[in-house]
Design brief:
Blueprint lengths: L1 H60 L4 H15 L11 H25 L3 H4 L2 H36 L3 H7 L23
């Protein structure tokens, strides 16, 4: 009888150790996702900070197509209206709205850069060239940060769905994280006209 109790105690202890280990591993994965999300926010903030400088440089250099400039300013203000923290990761609808606002800002900036090709006097200014380089670098950083976030989210989402870890994930209320997805317009190749 005593050996049966020792065996049962050992099994319970091993199961408890496994559950603690699994829970801690899931917490680590969740924090990796949160850290990746912070980096995404960081590069989006960098872009948002550069936009007013770009707009002022363009406004100061020429009297030019105001509709494009207005679209950039409006998109920047929509992005700025979001209160973004890691809680957005638990709300797929808010995440989608955030992603859409960032996409609109990116599209507006792309249109602004395309229009700038028609204004050599603006392209020639040192400030504009510097800001354009910084924005291009920022867009690359955004792409890298989003890829890293998606990788972290994929690993985390896989971990919480695998058996038997999914049992611990269910009890620990580990929710799946959303992915950044390409916008529908990204499926079409852009047309360049000269």
């Amino acid at each position: 009888m005593r050996s049966v109790l020792v065996l049962i105690g050992t099994i319970v202890l091993l199961l408890a150790m496994w559950a603690f280990h699994t829970y801690n591993t899931l917490v680590g994965s969740q924090e990796t996702v949160n850290s990746s999300w912070s980096q995404v926010q960081n590069v989006y903030q960098r872009r948002a900070d550069l936009v007013p400088n770009l707009v002022e440089t363009v406004k100061g250099a020429a009297n030019f197509e105001k509709s494009t400039l207005t679209a950039v300013v409006d998109a920047r203000s929509r992005v700025g209206s979001f209160t973004v923290d890691k809680s957005i990761l638990n709300d797929p609808e808010q995440f989608k709205k955030f992603q859409q606002a960032q996409g609109e800002l990116g599209q507006s900036l792309s249109r602004l850069m395309a229009v700038m090709e028609n204004y050599p006097q603006i392209k020639a200014t040192e400030n504009f060239r510097s800001l354009q380089d910084q924005l291009e670098g920022t867009e690359n950083r955004i792409a890298v940060a989003r890829r890293d976030f998606n990788d972290a989210a994929r690993l985390y989402n896989t971990a919480i769905r695998r058996m038997p870890a999914s049992i611990v994930a269910g009890y620990g209320h580990f929710l799946p994280r959303p992915y950044f997805e390409a916008e529908a317009t990204a499926q079409k190749a852009p047309q360049v006209k000269f």
